[in-house]
Amino acid sequence: MVAQAWLIMGEGAIAGAAVATLGGMVLGRMRASASRVPVLARRSPSKEVSQPCLEQVMACLPAAMLVINETRGLCVVSKMAEQQFDGDLGSIVRHPAFQAKLDVVLAQKAGNIQPGRVRVILDIPRLRVVQAVLQKQSLPAALLPISMRRENTAPNAQTTLVFVDLHDETDAVVAERQHTDFVAFASHELRTPLAALLGFIETLQGPAADDPVAQKEFLEIMAQQAKRMQNLLNSLLYLSRVQMQEHQKPRDVVRLVDLLDQCQTEGDLLSSGLPVTVDVQPPENQNWQVAGDETQLLQVVVNLVENAIKYSLVSEKTKAGKPVSITISCQQAEADQRWPSAPGIVLSVTDNGPGIPARHLARLTERFYRVAKTAAAVQGSGLGLAIVQHIVSRHGGRFVVESAVGQGTSCHIWLPLLPLVADHSSNCHQTVLQT
């Protein structure tokens, strides 16, 4: 994982160097064009001059770049910037850190112009880390679109522009954060049971060597700690196996009615002896089928039910005597921007537990990520939802978590539905699994 983070950051550095070289070529082309602008202004009508060379160059530029004028107006946006940062460009330009660096760059004297670098971090609606490099240049105003020029500006007048190169560093930051989370998690989750095991072993070898009561008690605790480490290692191995298979689309046909029957069996086992009820509702259509790995799909539901039980049992509602209710349902997907337009079903696991604060929802599927408030009260690896996300991705599906504090949590899984073709000879339906 460390190597992956360094690879990502290395690619970013290479990309930055390439963009810097490309930016120099662009400025060279614009300066060459600028030297001809006064002649064009004399020889050509104003309509021809209104076709700005700057826009033409930026349209061909394979880099995420912006041009800002001296009044802080956004003049030109490259196609790459529109594709990579669509919807976030306004937030980036208005960000206080960006504006502060823009002030510094605009204040530079003609003989001492240096590029400025700033990191912009956006938290809403999702985490995004952007590295911006700002370079001030003085070029003929005729290179700008007419709408961006000052009134009564002569074609050969000079104007101050700031060229901005944007590089998305979100992947590198997320990889680094995951590495940091892994180190912190491993040092805590593995060191604690190991320390307990070593301590009890030393005690059994010394003071408790001839104490049968203490031996029995200590051995039970040691077994629990060993099982805790075993579960962690099993989760890591399972996640690794799922990731290796993620590019291999499943070829088996899974009947949803059979899958939900197994979910009821697993739910009854998980809730046995606990103030928890697991209600599995039958699918609306008994013939619904999906292309999938039945074992993995069952694991997805089991992980979600286990999470619902663990976190609901420590909530204030449960402590006050309110039972935990978990519902597993399957409906046909309706038109929704969250789902693809293809026919599909939505498998949902809903509980009446404590809910999850909105700021945590976007990170729930990250490895080892756990909500700090409940992590101390509930033992877990923080890998369950990461496994769910990888399995759902392998099945060509979508995974969405909806939650509100005090109102419970709903986990929705969209899966593509296999088409059914009527077989009149046997008066039944057959599934067509496309190759």
From TrEMBL:
One of its GO terms (biological process) is cellular response to phosphate starvation. Keywords: Kinase, Membrane, Phosphoprotein, Transferase, Transmembrane, Transmembrane helix, Two-component regulatory system. Gene3D superfamilies: 1.10.287.130, Histidine kinase-like ATPase, C-terminal domain. It comes from the Bacteria. It catalyses: ATP + protein L-histidine = ADP + protein N-phospho-L-histidine. It holds the Pfam family HisKA. CDD domains: HATPase (cd00075), HisKA (cd00082). Its EC number is 2.7.13.3. The chain crosses the membrane at residues 6-27. This is histidine kinase.
